[in-house]
Design a protein that fits this description.
mainly alpha
Length: 215
């Protein structure tokens, strides 16, 4: 009949036509993540559904910012006259610095762009802050929450407030349009796990005498 057999498709085209189950699942999760993040970004702009709450969300943003915590911890360290308090504050400072480095490295490797509905009016940003994954605020909030609950003696209402603050910081990142839902969820998990690293590497006058001699 003069017809020839169809030439086989290149391997990469076969993969596109027959994607794996994992590929389909990941694509579906990504689509759901982007859809949910956009729907929940109700404070992304002044004209958004909850635009009037945007100033409050930005206050919460500052409360979880790295600069705020670094300056506050350093000031407390300089003003403290108790060796036990200095040890705790020095380790908190170490935890915050470790958090900044780790989040910056992951952001630089993943390079996920921030949501398109985000307004780039964030408080004190650096180069990697143009990337979204993971949420540094969420990571820091979870880390600080575990740290405070383990090393400060607080009444039950205050302990509840600390946990609520960490959760609200994470939620506010999505409401402001700064991050996608998965950025925040991964950030919270990363911060929770990072505290275990800080505990394992706990600095004390016994294992870091030169560092404590500075204070």
């Amino acid at each position: 009949s003069g017809s020839s057999a169809a030439a086989p498709l290149p391997e990469e085209d076969c993969m596109k036509l027959n994607p794996s189950f994992l590929g389909i699942a990941l694509s579906s999760l990504l689509a759901i993540d982007l859809w949910a993040s956009k729907r929940l970004g109700v404070c992304a702009g002044e004209g958004s559904a909850w635009g009037s709450a945007r100033p409050l969300m930005k206050v919460i943003e500052v409360s979880g910012h790295g600069i705020t915590w670094l300056l506050g911890t350093f000031y407390g360290l300089c003003q403290s006259d108790s060796s036990a308090a200095r040890e705790v504050l020095l380790n908190l400072l170490f935890a915050l610095l470790l958090d900044l480095v780790l989040v910056a490295v992951v952001k630089g490797l993943v390079k996920r762009r921030r949501p398109t509905h985000n307004k780039m009016d964030m408080f004190v940003t650096i180069s990697v802050d143009k990337y979204s994954f993971p949420s540094g605020h969420a990571t820091r909030a979870a880390l600080v929450c575990r740290f405070v609950l383990h090393h400060l003696v607080l009444a039950v209402p205050l302990r509840v407030l600390v946990v609520l603050w960490a959760l609200i910081v994470g939620i506010s990142r999505v409401m402001l349009g700064r991050h996608n839902v998965t950025d925040v969820l991964f950030g919270l998990l990363l911060g929770y796990a990072l505290y275990s690293v800080v505990e394992y590497c706990w600095l004390s006058p016994l294992n870091a005498p030169a560092l404590f001699a500075l204070w």
